Amino acid sequence: MANCAIVGINWGDEGKGRMVDLLTEDYDVVVRFQGGGNAGHTVINEKGKFALHLLPSGIFRDGVVNILGNGVALDPKNLWTEMQDVMAKGIEITPDNLKISDRASLLLPWHRDMDELEEMRLADKKYGSTKQGIAPFYSDKYQKKTILAGELFYPEELKSHLADLMEWKNLTLTKVYGAKPYTMAMLEEWLETYCEKIKPYICDIGAFLKEAHASGKNILFEAQLGSLRDLDYGIYPYTTSSNTTAAYAPIGSGLPSAKIDDVIGVVKAYSTCVGEGPFVCEMFGDEAEELRKNGFEYGAKTGRPRRVGPIDIVATRYGVEVQAATAIALTKLDVLSYMDKIPVCTHYLLNGEQTDRFPFPSALKNAKPVIEYFDGWKCDISGARNWDDLPKAAQKYVTFIEKQIGCPIKYVSVGPERDSIVIR
Questions:
Q1: What are 422's strand-pairing partners?
Q2: CA dist 214 to 1, 68, 139, 224, 264, Å?
Q3: Going along 115-243, which residue ranges are E strands?
Q4: Which of 215, 404, 407, 414 is the most exposed place for a label (fewest CB within 10 A)?
Q5: Can 13 be counted among the known catalytic residues?
Q6: Are 301 and 130 in contact (CB under 8 A)?
Q7: How far is CA 266 from the centre of its chain?
Q8: CA angle 301, 84, 132 (to 5 degrees)
Q9: 132: which residues sit within 8 A by CB, 6+ positions away?
Q10: Residue of 28, 41, 334, 347 marked active site
Q11: What is the three-class DSSP state of 149?
Q12: Burial level of 210, CB count in 10 A (0-12/13-18/19+)?
């Protein structure tokens, strides 16, 4: 029996869904343990191309049980819509292969409204939210102002609870933002249209995972976003509103007693960032646009052009430490094949001094990148399946990163397809 967490090392969008889809061949259970519908996990396999937002990326493997844990921001509308889209492409989803924690809190309709209204109020000081209601949801969860999924089985208490929450939330919507209030009729329609659809999938996940663990099942924990978007250890306040670290996986999954045996950190061969906040290694102009175009760097959820830059050794080393990564999956190495010289951010300059330590968030805006260049390989590497298939320049690039971040690179992705991988 082995427990493994697959987590992001940088700002998110590193290719975690692609790695979960690959590695679920060796696992019985896949658990999303935090985050919500703001995720964009792109998966390409023999069944097609998919952009998952809430569904765990193990949903394509026969015999794998997929779980949405109690730490997830569970949006019934987004989830049911996504399930329908995936099922329309021939993927079977039943209560046998998808289970939802009865302790997961529901993202309520007004959370998306609150998200958008607050970003509008912030104007040029906005956080760059995906406007999926994530920050208002987690804020309300910690105020104990949400509904648990299991409450759907107690309709009378549920409606009373919803009425109380609605009365409270309408005060903010109308008096702070000047928005329209919600009515019980609107909430009852939401319950009927979406919540009733996902109700058959809700169960006691704690009991299920405890039994799976006791019987020796292999469990894979799937994170959303990356270390630098973690609420506690990221570039606050330009973070998500949950903990994206492997250490949170047992708590957010429903099995707090779980021990994580392996942590696979996913790192892109260059840097990307969706949203606002400091991004020390950022490229601009034609150089950035060429990298963005070659990597097709547009948000899977929002379609927004991602900010891009060279791989950032300082940020990546910090992300490895935060996640306590035991191995690295380096993705999208093939994208760099067009470059004559490949830039790498090896250090930061801060207050006139060179540093290898990732600064406190308030200091990041003053940090400047130190760039070194490596020879490119200028050939198609997408057919590589063994380490020796890679050009020497590509091998040198990978081994340099490995040495600098202090963690073995076990997987090298050379394409988006499931089998486009070099395993060292």
A1: 412
A2: 9, 20, 35, 27, 23
A3: 147-148, 202-203, 219-226
A4: 215
A5: yes
A6: yes
A7: 11
A8: 30
A9: 36, 37, 38, 75, 78, 107, 112, 115, 301
A10: 41
A11: helix
A12: middle
Residue 332, token pair as written in the block: 């999208």
Tell me, yes or no, if 41 is annotated catalytic: yes
Q: Report the largest interatomic distance among the alpha carbons of the chain, rounded to a whole angstrom.
A: 67
The first and second tokens of residue 144, run together, are: 């104990």
- Average pLDDT by stretches of 10, the chain with 424 residues: 91 90 92 88 80 90 96 96 94 97 97 88 72 90 97 96 97 94 97 98 98 95 96 95 96 96 97 92 96 87 85 98 98 98 98 96 97 97 97 98 98 93 96
Residue 363: predicted pLDDT: 97
Specify the DSSP element, H or E, that contains 122: helix 109-122
The whole-angstrom separation of Cα 298 and Cα 295 is 9
Q: Which residues pair with 68 in a beta bridge?
A: 32, 100
Closest alpha carbon to 275 in 299, 245, 241, 244 = 299
**Residue 26 corresponds to which tokens in the numbers above?**
């060796």
DSSP H or E run through 346: strand 341-350
CA dist 205 and 211 (Å) reads 10
User: What is the amino acid identity at position 277?
Assistant: G
Q: Are 7 and 49 in contact (CB under 8 A)?
A: no
Residue 371, strand partner residues: 345
* Strand (E) or helix (H) holding 279: none
The answer to whether the CB of 194 falls within 8 A of the CB of 108 is no
